[in-house]
Design goal:
Blueprint lengths: L9 E6 L2 H9 L8 E4 L7 E4 L1 H4 L9 H7 L4 E4 L2 H15 L6 E5 L2 E5 L10 H16 L3 E6 L2 H8 L7 E3 L5 H5 L12 H8 L14 H18 L17 E12 L2 H21 L2 E11 L4 E13 L2 H15 L5 E9 L2 E2 L11 H21 L51
Helix pairs in contact: 4-5, 10-11
Amino acid sequence: MTIKNWPRIIALVDMNAFFASIEQARNPNLIGKPIGITNGIKGSCIITSSYEARAYGVRTGMRVKEAKKLCPSFLRIPSNPILYAKISTNIMNSLREITPDIEVFSVDEAFLDMTRCKKIWDNPENIAEKIKEKVFSVSGVHCSIGISGDKTTAKYAAKLHKPNGLTIISPWDAENTLKDISVLELCGINKGIGTFLAKRGIFTCGEVKKIPIGILGQHFGNPGRRIWYMCQGKDPEEVKNDIKTPKTIGHGKVTPPNTRSKNVIYMYLTHMSEKVAQRLRKNTLCAQKFFIGLKTNKDWIGCKQIKTTLPTNDGRHITALCKRILNQYWNGEGIYQVQVTALDPREEKGQIDLFGESGESNDKHHQLNRVIDCINQRYGEFTLASANLLNRSDMPNVISPAWKPYGYRQTIFQKYNKNNNIIKKVFKIK
């Protein structure tokens, strides 16, 4: 199959069972064994599992006890996020040697636009062979590849043959290939949109053409119009090299079940506030609006949006908001999780709060934060921290599926720092 006449050539590279594959590659004794990655030695929830474990029905999110019932030989392996982040970075760097047009989609996925490199490659098989070679040489793990003329079809193709697979769908075959599959099989079509389409008798990609594109546009805007084309194998979205400012930067933490100690809850909130502040500073961002929530056994309590006087990236100011929320909304209920999220962050302007701290005092705190950040980046997260964090949870954090080795979503400090646990979802408070 030649690619000379393809309008666009998009490849989706997907590392197979990424974390589990890394562990098997670094420990030959684990090759062929049913293993699952958990959040530390004591972790009871499976982050991901090897294909050997999946054959028994072991799935992400499953408890270890349940996995062992399905598979008595199941092995629990504690996660090593720093290693996973490093290998992910190495892989993405190696892919840039194939094409500069790359979009890092997640920790183990990337879109490659090969359109400008058509003269270098004879056919898509050669492209895939080179990609697989690059990935394995820097990581020791295999990948599956989908190649097509648009992003959506390429991503769908990549999951058809795993592990270490290759699926090629030409631009001219894309619509016919997708016509009989469920709309929910395509990346970006959630259950809400699926329900909207189902109410109109639309369940497969081929049936989407039954409704005018304007109806999807009316209800869902440009994403809806894109979906109309996606279902026909004509996704117009380009591979994105640029990184947009995130809409939120947040951290959450599970507390000991039914925590009723105000001091303990406050410590967890302080911990999350400082993590959010560190990430804001790392990306030269600040925020004025924050979500702060406490989860009970029934629902979340807290405030959907609370403001600081001026935009900030100082943990002290965010912690002060947490204290207000704790005093105002918490009435002694048992707490199971805390969440602190900066909403709508903006580029830092360096403005001084003229009505709060003096300019000199404010500048000293900025300098102090810079020094603390430098020390923590070198010697490990929270090597320097406020005294009330000395007894913070030592439960290891996990690398987020949305982690990226470049840009705002990167949350694991390369080389030195421990990983951070991102909870992206912003919960609505009733």
